[in-house]
Each structure stands twice: as structure tokens, then as C-alpha cells.
Amino acid sequence: MRNLVLARVGGNSLHSCWVDPGRPRDWDLHLLPYLELPPQDGVDCVVHPVVPGPKWSGLRELLNTWDGWRDYDQVWLPDDDILASQDTISRMFEVAGAMELDLFAPALHEESHYAHFITMENRRFYGRWVGFVEIMIPGFSTSALERLLPTLDLSDTGWGWGLDSLWPKLLGYRNVGIIDGTPVVHTRPVGQMRDPELGRRVLEESDRILTSYDCRQAHTTFGAFGADLKRLDLSPEQLLAEVIEGYRYLIERDPRLLDWITAFQQSPSDWPEYPTAGTPEAATASPLLEVSRR
Q: Which residue ranges of the chain lie beneath pLDDT 70?
């Protein structure tokens, strides 16, 4: 399979950590900067012309004007503050392709800043079929990205909040997964905006998307697979027990998670009011790994 990493990047991007110079890989790296970058010496990548503005307005412009992404089988659109290795990214693509995932993401390592528990690594699984993949690090089959591309027009702010709840619904909550066996580290705090007016507009936009399309953040695990990429034969009760055990390290940090996890594994009518990015309750952080830069 041919795969593409297309990253919206700035001057402090960690993309140089994603590639091992001189080692072959089955994916290409394209950068879409929002400001001028220094020379990318030693980094095998393609740098597109600068497009100012937020992540998703820039990606919307490029995806609608450059057809090259359609030549690939899968496309990953990560933030630029993700710490990951070349092998991890390659394995993520391999698993997503083998499991025929249309929307996917690597899990977040336990040292990550995070907003949603479901995005964090579950230690009991190699991967999970889920109802939510965060907008921070989504990957797509090319056919799914083609189908979902028009939704980027719904984000006038370019921040894209709310789209990560809409995408799984438009896909019928099928072939949506988080790959626990390929964790990456999110190195910066989440949900922080220096402009209160922008923050208000972004949240209102998200609420409008969710209301218009009658969807919510579905932090539900529908099933799981092991390192052999075979589905685990678990009853709903067994699945709940395994999900809880895999998140024991998070529950120990915040006992409220136990009730939230249990509620999300029930019917949608029982889903709780879970804190979302941009609220004080969601400002969850943990010590970070030391980030190395080439």
C-alpha cells in the first residue's frame, strides 16, 4: 500500500522525529506550513507553499486544489506536536490497512496531554473499534477522505471542532478504530486558546455541527482485536471489564472515569455529560517524555 502523512506544521514541528534518514519506508511525508519553514536538510519530505491560518482551513485548501493525495491508499493528518517514530507510523498504516479501517488513529501514550480518555492507550488491547477518533491525529482510507472532504466546509473557523464527532456518524460507526499497539505522544496541552472570542466561536461552531447532524462524542468501544489482528471474542460484559482494566492507570488518576466509561458502554441514551476540550474539566495533563529534535 502507498501511504501519505500530510502534516500542517509550524516552526516548532516535531516532524523531523518521524523519519529515519536512509531507512526505507512505505509512506511519503508532505508538509503544509502555515508560516515559512527553515530548510528541511536531512528530512525526506515535500514542502507545499505556505497557507496561513488554522489546521483545517489550510488542509481544506490543499486537499481541494492538489489531487496528489488521491494517489495514495491511506492518509494521516497529524498535528505537528506529535512525537512518533518512523516504525510506529509504518505499523499504524499496516494495521489500519489490514483491518480495513476507514477512519483511524494511533492511541496516545500515557505520557500525553489529552482531552478524551478513549484516545488514550488501552493496555488490554492492540486495537479497538470505536465511535470517536479525535481531530488531532486522524487517518483515513482515501475513499473515506474523499467522502468526508466536504465536511471541512462546515468549519468557518478552520479549527474543525465537532467534525470528529460527525465523521464516525457519517461512516455509520463502521470501520472506525484506535490502534493501541502504535501509541504516540501528544506533547502540548490541549484546548488552550489565547483569544477568548475565538474560543467562543470555535465552541459555538462545534455545537452547531453536532446539533445540525444530531451527533455526539461517542466515547464507546464497540469491539477489540489483539496483536494477531483477530477480533477478540468478548461479550458486552467482558468487553466492559477489559476496557476498564485497560484504563486502570487513568482511573487511578481520576476516579470519575470509571462512571464515564461504564455509561458510554451502555446505550446512547445513557451517555453522560462528559467534559469536552476547552472546559476546565478537560484540561488533563501528565508529565511529558523528553522530546528529541533532529
A: 191-192, 268-294
Would you say residue 148 lies in a domain? yes
Is 26 a member of any domain?
no
Q: Is residue 267 part of a domain?
A: yes
Under a CB-based contact definition with an 8 Å cutoff, are residues 54 and 157 in contact? yes
Amino acid at 102: D
Residue 102 lies in a domain: yes
**pLDDT one-digit tens code per residue, 192-251:** 677 889 989 999 999 999 999 999 999 999 999 999 999 999 999 999 999 999 999 999
Q: Across the chain, how many H-helices and E-strands are there?
A: 8, 10
Name the residue range of residue 176's domain.
Answer: 86-282
Return all residues near 196 (Cβ < 8 A) that are at least 6 apart: none
In a 13 Å sphere around the CA of 290, the CA atoms on its Cβ side amount to 1
Number of domains present in the structure of the chain: 1
Count the Cβ atoms, other than its own, within 10 Å of residue 277: 20
pLDDT digits (tens, 9 = 90+) for 241-254: 999 999 999 999 99
Helix/strand/coil (H/E/C) assignment for every residue in 21-83: CCCCCCEEEEEEECCCCCCCCCCCCEECCCCCCCHHHHHHHHHHHCHHHHHCCEEECCCCCEE
Q: How far apart are CA 264 and CA 98, in angstroms?
A: 27
State residue 275's pLDDT score: 66
Residue 186, SS3 per DSSP: strand
Q: What is the DSSP letter of 15?
A: G
What CA–CA distance (Å, rounded) separates 46 from 30? 5
